[in-house]
Amino acid sequence: MKTMKRLETVLILGVVFQGIAFGGESVTQTGDVMVLAGKQLVMDNSKLVQDAAGTGGEAVESGGKAWYVVHVATPKIPAGRYRVTARIEVLKREAACHVGRLIVNSDTGDKVDDVTLPFGTENFEKAAVYKDFSVELVRPPSDKGKLSLLVRILHETPAVPVRVASIEIKALAIPPVLVHRVWPQKLLARCNADQPITVSVCNLTDQPQEALKLKLDLIYGLNEVCTVGTKDLSLKPYETVEAIFPWKTGEREYGYEARATVVDSKGGAISQHSDYFAVSRSHFKLRILGSPRRRVYFPDKNASVQAAAYLRETYGNYLEVYGWAPSAFVELYPRHRFWTSGQVSVWWYDRDAMKAWIDEMHRLGMWVTAYDISLFNGWPGQETMRKHPEWCAFNALGRPRGGVNTAYWQTQANAYNDTQKPDIMPFAGEMPNNGSIWPMDDSLIKKAAEEILLIHRNLGFDGVRWDGHPIVYVLKEKGGVIGTDFGKMIWNHEGK
Predict the structure, then answer these.
(1) Would you give the end-to-end CA distance of the chain in angstroms?
(2) What is the largest CA-CA distance in the chain?
(3) Backbone dihedral angles phi then psi of residue 310, each to the nearest 5 degrees
(4) Residues 6 or more apart from 457 whose CB is under 8 A from it?
(5) How far is CA 461 from CA 191, 320, 357, 416, in A?
(6) What does each C-alpha distance from 362 to 186, 190, 308 come to in angstroms?
(7) Sheet architecture: strand order including 67-73
(8) Which of 381-390's residues contact partners 24+ apart within 8 Å by CB, and which partners?
(9) Rounded to 5 degrees, what are φ and ψ at 329?
(10) pLDDT beyond 80 at 440
C-alpha cells in the first residue's frame, strides 16, 4: 500500500495553499514550505503597511535607519538543506547603489557562517515592483535533530526605502542522515602537499542509523572522478561525527570539487554535500581576491583569527592589505608593536595580531599580498627624506617631487608605540604628506628590497603588489637603467 505524502492545507484570505505552512505552522519533511509575512516580520526599524502586491495585502517598510528591517527566527524545524527567499522591493530607483543584504544562519550560528546575498537598485527593473532574492544553505541541528533559521534583512542605504512582502523557507532535503559540512583544509593548496578533507555527518532521527557508508570523491577536469576513500558509518540517535580523509595533492593543478555522499546498504544515496578548492604551484596563478580589500584592520588577535575564518567562507583565496605599512618603500616592516599607517591617518595596527591573522590565513590555504608604492610617507618616510636627500626626486626648481607638506609633519609618537595605540595623526585622510623616490640610487633600491624580505620573514607576507614601481629599462648605450615617475609610471631618461 502506498503512503500518501502529507499535505498541509491552510486558508488565508480565501486562497488555499497546499504544502505551505504559515505563522506558527512548521516544516517537517522535504518539500514543505514555511512563509513568514506581515506582523511576523515587523520590528523597531520597520513598520507594517497596506500593500496590494504584498502577501495578504501587507508588507513591512523600512523605518529610515541603517539597520535591520527584518530580524526573525523560525520555529524549530528539522536540520537539512533549505532555500530561503525574501520578496523585496525598492521604493526609489534613481541611481545605481547598494541597498542592503539578505543574511541567513542558524540561530546558534556565528557571523562566520552567515550566508549573505547583497542587493542594490540595479537588481530591480523598476521601483515598487517586488523581486525574489534566494540563498541556499545546509546547517547542522542544534538540539535533537532540529534547528531554527535566523533570517535578517539589513538595510544599509536609508535614502532608498525598501519593503519586504514575505520570507519563504523551503525544505529542499531533510534526510534521516545529513552530510552538513565538507571542509578541505586549504582553499588553495600547493602541489605535492597534504590536503586532508574533513566531512561532518549527523543523525537527525531518534533511531540508530547503521550499515551506512561515507564516500568521498574528487571531481576535476571534464567530470573526471577520483575516490579518496570510503568509511563505514554507524550513528547513534541524534549523533554527529567527523571523518577525516587524508589526501596528497600531487602534480595536477586547478580546481576540485570534494563531494561526500552517505549511502545505504543497497548503495542508494541518502545525503550529499560538496565544497571546492584549488591546487597550484604558485598562488599567483589561481588567486581570487577576497573581501575586504582596502581595509584589513584587526588590532586584536582573536578578532584577527576569526576574520581569517570569515574570509575562508567567502572563497577568496588571497587578500591584499592596502595602505597598511608605517611607511611605503623604506619602512614596510614595523619597528614597534603598535603603529599607524603612513598612508591613511585613522588606520592603526598591532604587529602580533597581524602575524596571527596571516598565520591563520596560511593554515586555511589563503595567501596575503602587501600593498607598496614608490613614495616616502608616514613618519619614517619623512625622516628618511631628511636624512637621505639623495634618495629623493626633485623638480627643476629644486623642490621635492610628490606632495611634501610640512603642515602635516609628524612625530614618532604619531607613528609608533610599544604598549598601546599611537597618538592621533596631525592630519585626516589619505597621505597629504609624501615624497617621490629617486630610484637611480642603488642603495635606496637595496633598502626597499630588504624591507620586502623583512615583511616576508617576520610577518609572513607572500608577495607585494606595486602601485607605481621602479621600472628597469635596458638601453643599448647604458645597460640597465632604473626609473620611475609617480603618476606616469615612466621615467624619461635623457629623452629615451
Answers:
(1) 90
(2) 98
(3) -65, -45
(4) none
(5) 20, 10, 11, 21
(6) 8, 11, 9
(7) 67-73, 149-155, 98-106, 115-120
(8) 381/327, 381/328, 381/329, 381/330, 381/331, 381/342, 381/434, 381/435, 382/409, 382/410, 382/433, 384/327, 384/330, 384/331, 385/435, 388/444, 390/438, 390/441
(9) 75, -60
(10) no
Burial of 423: CB neighbours in 10 Å, binned 0-12, 13-18, 19+:
middle
481: amino acid identity, one letter: V
CA 338 distance to own-chain centroid:
26
pLDDT at site 26: 76
C-alpha pair distances (Å), 36 with each of 73, 76, 108, 276: 10, 14, 20, 33
The Cα 6–Cα 234 span in angstroms is 29
Main-chain dihedrals φ then ψ at residue 274, nearest 5 degrees:
-135, 160
Residue 471 confidence class, pLDDT cut points 50, 70, 90: low
pLDDT top residue among 306 and 245:
245
pLDDT in tens, 264-318: 999 999 999 999 999 999 888 888 887 655 456 567 888 888 888 888 888 889 8
The rounded distance, in Å, linking the Cα atoms of 64 and 139 is 33
pLDDT, tens digit (0-9, with 9 covering 90-100), for 337-382: 999 999 888 888 999 999 999 999 999 999 999 999 888 999 999 9
Set of cell numbers at residue 495: 629623452
CB 340 within 8 A of CB 378: yes
* Identity at 22, one-letter amino acid code: F
Side chain identity, residue 308: A
pLDDT at 13 over 80: no
Angle at 222 between CA 220 and CA 228, to 5 degrees: 30
Task: Return the percentage of the chain with pLDDT > 90, whole number.
Answer: 64
CA distances from 100 to 70, 160, 486 (A): 11, 10, 38
The upper half-sphere exposure of residue 13, i.e. CA atoms within 13 Å in the direction of its Cβ, equals 7
- Predicted model pTM: 0.79
Is pLDDT at 109 greater than 50 in this prediction? yes
Q: Which residue has the cell 554507524?
A: 234
Side-chain half-sphere CA neighbours of 370 within 13 A: 28
